[in-house]
Amino acid sequence: MGTPYYITLASFRRMFSSMKAIFSFCLDYDAGHHQKLNGNRRHLMSALADSIDDLVQRLCQKRALQRFELKEIQKVSREFNPEGGVSTLIDVLLGRDETVFTKFKQCLRDMDRGALIDLIEGRGSGSHKATRCTCTVTRNITEQSVDDTGDTITSSYTEQYTHQSEHEAGVYKRVGCGQMREPDYSEIWIPNNENLVTDFKYNLGEVTGRLLQGFVISDDDVTTIKRITDNVDAARKLVEILPLRGEGVLRKIIKALQPKYDIANILDQQLKELMDKVTV
Question: Where does the CARD domain start and stop, copy by copy (predicted)?
Answer without folding.
Answer: 29-123
